[in-house]
């Protein structure tokens, strides 16, 4: 990997139950998306929700 890519990315490790991991992977596959793309979509929607804390 290039040095530039390392400075703009950070790996975030999370541990999920096997059932949730399977469901998440299946939903990404159903949408034809990567896990990263699905997470980014979820996070964007969360940010727009009333529950999201706004700075």
Write up this protein.
It contains 3 helices and no strands. It has 55 residues and is an all-alpha fold. The longest helix is centred in the middle third of the chain and has 14 residues, at 18-31. It is globular. Helix content is 62%, strand content 0%.
Order of helices and strands: HHH
Which structural category do the helix and sheet elements fall into?
Answer: mainly alpha
Helix content: 55-70%
In whole angstroms, how far apart are the ends? 33 Å
Strand fraction equals under 5%
Q: How many E strands?
A: 0
- Total number of helical segments? 3
The largest pleated sheet is described as: none
Mean pLDDT: 89
Blueprint of the fold:
Blueprint: H1 3-8, H2 18-31, H3 35-48
In a few lines, what is going on in this structure?
This protein is mainly alpha-helical and 55 residues long.
Which features characterize this protein?
55 residues; mainly alpha
